[in-house]
Structure formats: structure tokens, C-alpha cells
Amino acid sequence: MKTLQDYIDKLNALNFKEMYNGDFFLTWEKSDDEIEAVFTVADALRFMRENNISTKVFESGLGISLFRDNSTRTRFSFASACNLLGLEVQDLDEGKSQVAHGETVRETANMISFMADVIGIRDDMYIGKGNAYMHEVVDAVTQGNKDGILEQKPTLVNLQCDIDHPTQAMADMLHIIHEFGGVENLKGKKLAMTWAYSPSYGKPLSVPQGIIGLMTRFGMDVVLAHPEGYEVFEEVEEVAKKNAEKSGGSFTKTNSMAEAFKDADIVYPKSWAPFAAMEKRTELYGNGDTDGIKALEKELLAQNAEHKDWACTEELMATTKDGKALYMHCLPADITGVSCKEGEVDASVFDRYRDPLYKEASFKPYIIAAMIFLAKFADPADILKKLEENGTPRVFK
């Protein structure tokens, strides 16, 4: 059984000093040691909470959240992460703020950050916009801190952009590590990241891109499968290829869901919109072309409907490794006969994997908390040790 000291010792063996006072935009911008540090701190924080040790490292301060798209799991994961560390969450509703009246990004970022230690942003709807907006916010608060307007520079955590969904991919990866008994057991495992049919259109590409951009770092054989026309960012595919070469794994693509599922150890069937269509959508919204948007939506729904056979069925699951591949999804899934007539996954498959799916989601609050922790403290291992020595219970008994 592990102790907190095991996590502290592991952390001390890693080089992650560049994370201090930093931000978390994309997983592939982080070194292997930095990724490992996030996993280690996440596990340490979870260990402490499960053992009734307080992880409160802030006596006051704000965690600001800005969601430009709908969210349940990530919204509550961010709030949980902030609360775990002692921060209070304030959600920025742009419709109820002066942003709606033309307030600049620079002004908004500074005005909300006087006592903020972290800003979490989801901005995933428009290609070329979300990640750029996050950088604009960071530039604004960095300058505000340099100019003496802000006492501290709040760290930014990407809660999903147009390119990557790092908190999701990291939570998924930590779930895999635990399911397979350690990262050392992942080499040679086959992971299928596949498109799946959805009766809706316009789902972001950042989840499949996040998965191939991260999972290829661990020596696994990662397969990206989708019908023709559902390509993802070429730049992220290049990242995946380089990661696979470095880690001793592989990254391949196929237009066959059956090929991807065959002998897979892990399957991740999820719908997403074609990159080219999302680019066009962004342009149409920018031009205020409502008729063009409606026409594109109709076109994409028809295109999706041509691929209803791309679904995670019992028959496909039977072709995976021993018929028992780990089924994963970022949730909510489009469940055939439950949430829609025809969707991404059979109800029987989803029901069988419900517990592992919920466990998968449970890692996200700790991943986000770890990202904040590593950005706010120069010596995180020492802080963990002090928390243990203080021995303050989370719940008094």
C-alpha cells in the first residue's frame, strides 16, 4: 500500500520547475517529467482526501471559471479542484458582465483577477479562436502583474479549447494507468480512438486530438479511426507521430472501425465534426451568415447519417482483446435507445461499463487541482509534506 511519502519521493525525482508560475494550454507543450508530475500530485491529493487529510493550501483567493460552451463534468471538476485547495469559485457569465458591452479582453482579465489565483477557460466552439483567446488572457494578466496592477499572476488552466482538452485527456490517461496497474504495463497496448455516429453535429475535435496527442507518449499502439472526411488537425497528427516514435509505440490511421477495434485493449468511440466543416462554421459565424450556418448544419447532419454503422456494439466489443477492452468516453455519450434513437454506443455496452466510466470522470478534479498546485508552489513536494505533518483533518470526527 502506498504512502504519501512514496508520492513525495517520486515528485522529488522529477524535473518540473518550469511549471511554477506557468499555465497549462496543451499537453504536448509539457515535458514527460511535467506530465508525470501532474499525475503524481493528482494521486497524492486523492490519497490525502481519501485518508481525511486536509489539502487546503489557500486561506483565501478566487478560482475564476469562464465557460463559453456547455459543461457539467468539467465545470464541477474545476469547482471541486479549487475547493479542494481552499479557493472559492466565481463563474464569469459574459452575458451579465461588461464584456457584453464591448469591454476588452485585457480589461476584463485584469478586473476579475485582483484576488484570483487561477482562471479556467473553456472555449472550444470555433477553430483558431479558443486557444488564441486563452493566450490573450494570459498575456493580459502577465502584463497586469508586471505593471503592479495584480499582486499575483493567476495561472490559466485550459478546460477545453479548439485544439486540446488537456484536463480530459490527462484524467483519461490516469484512469488507464490505474486500470492497467501502472504506466510500465502500457507498452504495446492497443488503443482505438474512433469516430462514432451521433444524431447531432458540431462536436469539438479537441477530445480525439487530446487523446492522440497524449496517449502516444506511453509506448501504446494508438489507432485513429474515422470515415473519410472526418479528419482532425494535421498538426496534432504530427505530434502523435513524433510521440509514438519517441516512446516506442505506434500511431496509425484507418477508415475502418472494425479494424481499429480488432484486438484493442482500450476503445474510445466518440463523435466529432470534420475539421474542414468546423473551419467553415467559424468563418460563417464570423460573417454573421445565419443562412449559411443553417445550410452547413443540414449538410453535416446528412453526412453523419451516412455513417450510422459507426457505433460501439456488442458485436464490435467481442472482437477486442479477449472481448474485454476497456470502453472509455468523456461523457455524455449518445446511447442508442436511451438518449437517442441511434448513437455512439449500445445501451448494453454502456451499462456494463458504467462504473469504470464514472471512475474515469472522477480523476478530473484531481488533475485540475494538480495543475494549479504545480503552478502556484515552487516546491510542491515540501508543501505536501507540510500538509501531512500538519495533519489537519478534512472532516473532524
Automatic annotation (TrEMBL):
Record Pfam families: OTCace, OTCace_N
Record flagged with keyword Mitochondrion: no
GO BP terms, alphabetized: citrulline biosynthetic process; L-arginine biosynthetic process via ornithine
Entry keyword set: Transferase
Matching InterPro entries: Asp/Orn_carbamoyltranf_P-bd, Asp/Orn_carbamoylTrfase, Asp/Orn_carbamoylTrfase_sf, Asp_carbamoyltransf_Asp/Orn-bd, Carbamoyltransferase_YgeW
Domain Aspartate/ornithine carbamoyltransferase Asp/Orn-binding: 212-372
Residue ranges of domain Aspartate/ornithine carbamoyltransferase carbamoyl-P binding in the record: 27-176
One annotated GO molecular function: ornithine carbamoyltransferase activity
Matches recorded under NCBIfam families: PRK07200.1 (NF005538), ygeW (TIGR03316)
PANTHER family for this protein: ORNITHINE CARBAMOYLTRANSFERASE, MITOCHONDRIAL, ORNITHINE TRANSCARBAMYLASE, MITOCHONDRIAL
Family from the record: Belongs to the aspartate/ornithine carbamoyltransferase superfamily.
Protein name: Knotted carbamoyltransferase YgeW
